[in-house]
Amino acid sequence: MTALFDRVALIGVGLIGSSLSHAMRAHGLAVHVSAHARSAATRSKVKDLGLAHSVHDSAAAAVVDADLVILCSPVGSYGALAAEIAPALKPGAILTDVGSVKAAVAKDIGPHVPAGVHFIPGHPIAGTEQSGPESGFATLFANRWCILTPLPGCDPVALAKLETFWRRCGSDVEVMTPEHHDLVLAITSHLPHLIAYNIVATAADLEEVTSSEVIKYSAGGFRDFTRIAASDPTMWRDVFLNNREAVLEMLGRFTEDLSALQRAIRWGDGETLFTLFSRSREIRRGIIAAGQDTAAPNFGRNPEKSQ
Ligand code: NAP
After folding, report:
1. What tens digit of pLDDT does each residue of 252-290 get?
2. 303 pLDDT band (50/70/90 cuts)?
């Protein structure tokens, strides 16, 4: 199959950037991959791992002649990066990103995009709690959704080409507005991370239960939160700073529902608890039926080592 793009530039090479590099190689999507990484240590790892054909200390140098530029750094870095690369972008190039928030990203990058460059924000709904260039793998995006949030006036040919890129990485593609994306992700991703960070912090602060007991008995449920709460702190700080309204809206609803549960426990209202827990079980079944998780018990972990 012929390569989809002659030259693709990755700006930032962590979990997502390195996974894109592996996926592009596996599916023959680019003739040349150029990469920019901020630190000398990451640039050296990118070279050692063979994640790019050329590695650049400056983001502007990495995008020269690129047909597709993908920003793969934390959301808070996009405005400054866009200002830096704008003069070097090739007319006709597609500029996209993988950030977990979309409205703020469109606002931060949009004003810097030169005429003739097609800016299409994007977000692959795929990830792990790992970070850095060593953590990527080619199948990260397989059977996962990628959401594209084109802005008014977006060129349909450029949009179709970016859709093809993600489909050839193994993803299904959905198109929606940045605002709708932010609302959906606030409940499906951002709030769960906030709850995980909070429950781990609460457990760590408990004085009556020692931290060794928290670790020893973690298979009771706690450890599944710790996996999510091990996610990259910079990335998640930027997500909450940039999706404030939608997260606060969902947090308000969540707090109300939690109060209702608290009340049901206080008043011994078993029926309310049972009805809600049964509904949740159905949602889990729906996720498995949609191929978004394994049906194996305990997430497919070795049963002998699990609770
Ligand atoms: P990561 O593994 O922590 O890698 C981040 C990369 O960005 C590193 O190469 C880092 O360089 C670089 N970087 C950080 N700050 C920068 C700056 N100010 N200027 C230039 N480069 C900078 O992160 P990731 O998990 O790949 O996430 C990258 C993006 O993907 C984020 O926007 C995130 O919202 C989005 N995303 C993440 C996931 C997930 O589950 N992880 C899923 C979907 C989307 P150094 O190594 O040199 O510091």
Report:
1. 999 999 999 999 999 999 999 999 999 999 999 998 988
2. low
**Closest C-alpha to 98, from 154, 157, 171, 155:** 171
Ligand 1, atom 38, residue with closest C-alpha: 127
Q: Where are the domains of the chain?
A: 5-176, 180-268
Q: Are 96 and 162 in contact (CB under 8 A)?
A: yes
55 lines ligand 1 (CB under 6 A): no
Distance (Å) from CA 93 to ligand 1 centroid: 22
CA 72 to ligand 1 center in whole angstroms: 5
- Please tell me the CATH code under which domain 180-268 is placed: 1.10.3660.10
CATH 3.40.50.720 at 5-176, yes or no: yes
Within 10 A of 32 (CB to CB), how many other CB atoms are there?
16
**pTM summary value:** 0.93
